[in-house]
Design the sequence.
């Protein structure tokens, strides 16, 4: 009883790169985090947590956790460090940066971050004000959803689309290039409820994922051919006379032009390109049009090939063609982020970016560090936080080569000595979620979530926000933003005057733990039943005239300078993959590789936890029996996957879950903990997809050999 009396409960918010953004409850006793659970009253979390964070409390006490600042004492990558104080660490960073700025200018320094933490105060954009004030190179962060976002914004504008909770009202549900059971788990119950009410569930994915196995119909296009498939659906909807002519006339732009382009995508042509049977193309078109409400959940993996963003534009046309938007639960879901009244300008301070400041994309870090990009001035310092590029970025061997440069001053803020942190000159220990305050937006539902500080930081760990305050003081910045508390920043970065908050304020968020945006409820939200798309025309735009390629502001520190600016095809269409069995590389590297996220890890988070590795299994390579026989590979054999960019080793899983000509290897594994010093992104190209500087993680050819 005494322990029960002492127990305290705090509001938590999962900080990770996941659309679920779970509302959590922290439990603490005597200053220690003793439990974590999903918030039962949250309509989306519903009391449950995924396998990744269900023991989040124990994660805070992992014995390998970094608890003190470190300075490198051995060769880069040797993991030899000495403990230093925060004063020494901040002083050394300041001294090195002042010297770099004096010789090369501030753009020789670059921040590097992503969604290791999604928080407004502690996460991906938390360092933007400091680095923009410093005058550093702008970091463009397009690991996922950037190409999807460019395609989405061009097609339907900054709308949140269908409420994921409204899927219970849908009768034909399409999950396209997403493995919901592994990466969007809390949406799956709404899909199952819809199925109980009679809905059909269709998964479009290049391999048989957990979600595909649970679907009523799995459609399997060849990797990178989704654009042809989507245009085939457009063609067949039109040819079968299934267009909602009234909706198209009133609420869309460019139908005649789209019809003309789609004429080239007969079901027979689509079958030849994608491998999807022509009759299945016709059947999907017929059912999507006639079984209403029909809805598409767009997965971020759809963008990960040369033609991915164009495929998304084509997919975005489908609900408007058949009038799905008329219904509650009908239409499209990409990312509700566009509804959140986050004041990104305050969070990033782009007004401090000097005109002409250069932009370096996170996917091309290796090229930037090795001189391949021929930057002037060259990068002389890198500050990595909320990211682990040696695991998650493409062409990681090139990144490692760059990180080994003796003239590169690298600082990494981390929880563990990751594959990236081991190359740092200074390592700063960062707090975990229960040790700091924050507010979370979501890219998977319509709730703001509050993260309350439940315990004091372990050791000498500090929140990201405090790091920026210390560095600002060291660099002589006295701007008010660097003096504000975390609570003040939480309040400032949200536009509480927005009607989408329905009069709520930060005090109410803190008191309840979460707030739903005032954008209509799950049982009545039909945002475009009568058009009203937030596009220049007010309509869904099949035809976009005069557009140029861009990356949306939140992905590039809200900087509008230095955009790519290439002309954009006025219409959606099909762009073939860069690397395919039809390309010249196929003679040497004949297999496509798909690298989805792991079920047991969240990107590279938890991939150093022994029990998580045990649950996920070691790095595996899923290979079709026909491809395995041709290479004398049997179940459980160690194999090497390689191309001219790099290689990694894993254990063969021989299964029909992978189509012939395609292998699957999930990402997130630490190369230092794998069979060889390599992981799946060693073979990935850093080439961009067609829009929004999207990555091309699923547009790569490899070969596989058994390891003796």
Sequence:
């Amino acid at each position: 009883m005494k322990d029960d009396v002492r127990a305290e409960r705090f509001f938590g918010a999962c900080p990770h790169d996941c659309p679920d953004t779970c509302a959590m409850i922290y439990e603490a006793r005597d200053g220690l985090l003793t439990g974590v659970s999903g918030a039962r009253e949250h309509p989306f979390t519903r009391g449950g947590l995924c396998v990744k964070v269900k023991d989040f409390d124990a994660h805070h006490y992992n014995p390998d956790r970094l608890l003190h600042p470190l300075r490198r004492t051995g060769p880069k990558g040797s993991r030899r460090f000495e403990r230093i104080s925060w004063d020494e660490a901040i002083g050394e960073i300041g001294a090195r940066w002042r010297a770099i700025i004096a010789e090369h200018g501030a753009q020789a320094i670059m921040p590097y971050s992503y969604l290791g933490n999604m928080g407004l105060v502690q996460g991906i954009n938390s360092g933007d004000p400091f680095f923009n004030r410093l005058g550093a190179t702008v970091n463009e962060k397009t690991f996922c959803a950037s190409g999807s976002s460019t395609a989405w914004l061009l097609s339907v504008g900054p709308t949140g689309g269908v409420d994921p909770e409204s899927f219970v009202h849908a009768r034909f549900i399409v999950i396209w290039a997403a493995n919901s059971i592994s990466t969007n788990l809390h949406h799956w119950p709404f899909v199952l409820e819809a199925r109980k009410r009679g809905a059909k569930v269709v998964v479009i994915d290049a391999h048989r994922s957990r979600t595909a196995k649970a679907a009523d119909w799995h459609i399997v296009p060849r990797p990178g051919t989704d654009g042809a498939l989507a245009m085939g659906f457009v063609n067949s909807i039109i040819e079968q006379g299934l267009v909602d002519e009234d909706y198209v006339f009133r609420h869309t732009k460019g139908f005649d032009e789209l019809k003309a382009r789609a004429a080239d995508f007969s079901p027979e042509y689509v079958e030849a390109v994608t491998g999807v049977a022509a009759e299945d193309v016709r059947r999907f078109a017929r059912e999507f049009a006639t079984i209403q409400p029909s809805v598409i959940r767009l997965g971020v993996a759809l963008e990960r090939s040369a033609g991915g963003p164009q495929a998304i534009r084509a997919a975005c046309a489908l609900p408007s063609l058949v009038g799905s938007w008329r219904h509650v639960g009908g239409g499209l879901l990409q990312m509700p982020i566009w509804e959140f009244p986050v004041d990104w300008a305050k969070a990033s301070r782009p007004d401090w970016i000097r005109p002409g400041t250069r932009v370096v994309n996170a996917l091309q870090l290796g090229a930037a560090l090795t001189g391949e990009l021929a930057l002037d001035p060259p990068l002389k310092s890198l500050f990595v936080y909320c990211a682990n590029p040696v695991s998650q970025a493409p062409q990681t061997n090139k990144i490692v080569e760059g990180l080994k440069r003796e003239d590169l001053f690298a600082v990494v803020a981390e929880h563990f000595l990751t594959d990236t942190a081991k190359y740092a000159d200074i390592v700063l220990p960062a707090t975990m979620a229960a040790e700091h305050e924050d507010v979370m937006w979501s890219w998977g539902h319509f709730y703001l979530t509050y993260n309350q500080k439940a315990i004091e930081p372990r050791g000498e760990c500090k929140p990201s926000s405090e790091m920026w305050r210390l560095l600002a003081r060291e660099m002589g910045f006295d701007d008010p933003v660097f003096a504000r508390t975390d609570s003040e920043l939480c309040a400032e970065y949200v536009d509480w005057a927005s009607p989408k908050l329905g009069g709520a304020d930060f005090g109410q968020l803190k008191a309840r733990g979460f707030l739903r945006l005032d954008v209509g409820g799950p049982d009545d939200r039909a945002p475009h039943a009568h058009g009203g798309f937030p596009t220049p025309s007010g309509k869904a735009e099949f035809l976009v005239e005069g557009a140029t390629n861009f990356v949306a502001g939140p992905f590039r520190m809200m900087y509008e300078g230095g955009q790519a600016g290439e002309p954009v095809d006025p219409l959606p269409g099909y762009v073939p993959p860069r690397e395919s069995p039809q390309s010249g590389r196929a003679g040497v590297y004949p297999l496509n590789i798909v690298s989805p996220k792991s079920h047991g890890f969240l990107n590279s988070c938890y991939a150093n936890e022994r029990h998580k590795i045990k649950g996920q299994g070691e790095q595996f390579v899923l290979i079709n029996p026909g491809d395995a026989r041709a290479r004398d590979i049997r179940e459980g054999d160690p194999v090497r996957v390689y191309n001219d960019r790099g290689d990694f080793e894993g254990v063969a899983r021989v299964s029909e879950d992978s189509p012939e000509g395609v292998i699957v290897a999930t990402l997130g594994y630490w190369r230092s903990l794998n069979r060889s010093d390599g992981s799946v992104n060693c073979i990935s190209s850093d080439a961009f997809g067609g829009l929004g500087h999207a990555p091309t993680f699923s547009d790569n050819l490899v070969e596989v050999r058994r390891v003796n």
In short: The chain has 23 helices and 27 strands. The radius of gyration is 25 Å. The mean pLDDT is 97. Residues 20 and 184 are 6 Å apart (CA to CA).
